[in-house]
Write a structure and sequence with these properties.
about 280 residues; alpha/beta; 10 helices
Length: about 280
């Protein structure tokens, strides 16, 4: 498992909305990522393109952030939440440095954790949406129950797999700041959508590359950790999901890439350790 050697120093915090039950509007998958699994299962397995995705990205009014915080002593997911906050902060510490090296300022995102449903600026965030990024409020959303289901059903098990999933969503936040997301939306093609997702995988791999003994991360990978993340990436390839859910594989409806592509781009980010080597659009 990932071993922390010091406290992470980057920005970002967990906004805990577990126990909140705001009324929901339109489901907002907000940028996709691993989050898009439910959207794939419901909509894209039968066809669709990036136009379907961008339609649900529109802002949807005021966000309700009221919640009843859980008693930490009785919270069964306390360790998981603390781990995710550490991953968020460590990941963003890397991006702060990357942006500073390019004479730019990185805007930090926060992680909203919830159970069942909450509200986002992209509409309603539900468990079925899974982990996802909403560009309208620049927040990452993660339903912990769905995260457990993702591990159980699709084999994305282990804390490094969880770290990869969150790092992928932060990658979408980076793409949003750089204007990449908006360019992809304007193209409205499955190929561009796949390239966006594979780049977020590669960005996640770049962060994983810092989790080495000689790396800058506050954490370090132990034996088998990288394989956990790579296996998780392969498990959520479009072909793997389609094969498990429908028994058929339809490449024309893919939006995230095959298991092989996701594995390769995550590994490419880890091997090179450079965001500049994550040009999935070439």
């Amino acid at each position: 498992m990932v071993r922390w050697r010091r406290n992470p120093a980057g920005p970002g915090q967990v906004i805990d909305r577990r126990g909140a039950g705001p009324s929901l509007g339109r489901i907002g998958v907000g940028g996709g990522g691993i989050a898009i699994i439910a959207y794939l299962l419901i909509t894209l397995l039968g066809g669709g393109d990036l136009g379907d995705l961008t339609e649900v990205l529109a802002p949807a009014g005021e966000v309700d952030t009221q919640s009843e915080p859980l008693d930490p002593a009785a919270d069964p997911d306390r360790d998981l939440v603390q781990f995710l906050e550490g991953v968020l902060q460590d990941n963003q510490a890397m991006w702060v440095g990357v942006f500073e090296g390019a004479d730019q300022t990185y805007r930090a995102t926060d992680l909203v954790v919830f159970n069942g449903a909450t509200q986002s600026a992209c509409g309603g965030a539900q468990a079925q949406s899974g982990p996802h990024y909403c560009p309208a409020d620049e927040l990452v959303y993660m339903d912990l129950d769905f995260l457990a289901e993702l591990q159980r059903r699709f084999g994305a098990a282990g804390d490094t797999a969880q770290a990869y999933i969150l790092a992928h969503e932060v990658g979408h936040h980076v793409q949003h700041q750089l204007g990449i997301t908006e360019q992809v939306q304007s193209q409205a093609s499955n190929e561009a959508s796949i390239a966006l997702e594979l780049q977020a995988d590669c960005f996640a791999g770049v962060w994983l590359s810092t989790l080495r003994a000689e790396g800058s991360s506050a954490a370090i990978l132990e034996a088998g950790d990288l394989e956990e993340a790579l296996n998780a990436a392969a498990a959520v390839g479009d072909d793997a999901i389609q094969s498990q859910t429908s028994g058929q594989v339809n490449p024309e409806s893919w939006t995230h890439g095959s298991s092989e592509q996701r594995y390769q781009w995550l590994n490419n980010g880890f091997t090179t350790g450079s965001p500049g080597e994550c040009d999935t659009f070439g």
